[in-house]
Amino acid sequence: MSSTSENLQVLYEDNHLIAVNKRPGDIVQGDKTGDKPLSEIVKSYLKTKHNKPGNVYLGVVHRLDRPTSGVILFAKTSKALSRLNKAFAAHDTDKIYWALVKNKPENPSAKLIHYLKRNPKQNKSYAHIKPVENSKKAILNYNIIKNLDNYFLLEIKLETGRHHQIRSQLSAIGCPIKGDLKYGFDRSNKDASIHLHAKTLRLIHPVRKESITFEADLPKENLWQSCLKN
């Protein structure tokens, strides 16, 4: 279920930034599908809320895969966008994700290091143990934080931001994310989502220069909600 400007879940807004909780199915930026992207939905929201004539400026800072949910940050000024672009490029951000997997990882917590090679035709990244031509180093840390009846909830902290990084790296250790057919899960979710959620994003505010944290609630879906029960 994708967003509209009426049901947009805004997590934070000031003169420089707006952070929203992306629903599974939203595309962050326009693509060949022609579906309305989240960036345009946020622009409509800002135009209406602030009664703005003409075009609304909105800079796309980072992306989440279409089937993924969670925190997405946009810049409302070009100054904020250029500073945020530098922060993301330098990995001066803390990104924490939650993922549900069926297979228990061998270790309760670990640092995964792979070399990802992207195949643009398949829109897929392949994880290698050693560097291969045109590969990029990918690092994440995971921790099993809950055992559900049939799944394990992992908390993941990214050290790098590569194409399909979490999906590819977890698949490489035999733990594809629930619903992620592309990376080896045995069946898709009914709504075409995958159980990967960008839960927390922490960074230095590009203008105020103080630490700021954005937290996105889990989707209102039964399995996700069971992660919150004691």
Number of discrete helical segments = 4
Named CATH architecture = 2-Layer Sandwich
User: Could you give the distance between the termini?
Assistant: 28 Å
- Unreliable stretches, pLDDT < 50, 5 or more residues? none
What would you report as the Rg, rounded to the nearest angstrom? 18 Å
Task: Report on this structure.
This protein is of the alpha+beta class and 230 residues long. The protein has a single domain, classed as Pseudouridine synthase. The chain contains 4 helices and 11 strands. Strands 1, 2, 3, 4, 5, 6, 7, 8, 9, 10 and 11 form an 11-stranded mixed sheet that branches. A hairpin with a 4-residue loop joins strand 6 (109-119) and strand 7. The longest helix is centred in the N-terminal third of the chain and has 12 residues, at 38-49.
Summarize the structure.
The chain is 16% helix and 33% strand. The chain has 230 residues and is α+β, with helices and mostly antiparallel strands. The chain has one domain (10-226): 2-Layer Sandwich (Pseudouridine synthase).
Q: What is the topological layout?
A:
Blueprint: E1 10-13, E2 17-22, H1 38-49, E3 59-60, E4 69-75, H2 78-89, E5 93-101, E6 109-119, E7 124-128, E8 136-147, E9 152-158, H3 165-172, E10 196-204, E11 211-215, H4 222-226
Parallel strand pairs: 4-10
Antiparallel strand pairs: 1-2, 2-4, 3-4, 5-9, 5-10, 6-7, 6-8, 8-9, 10-11
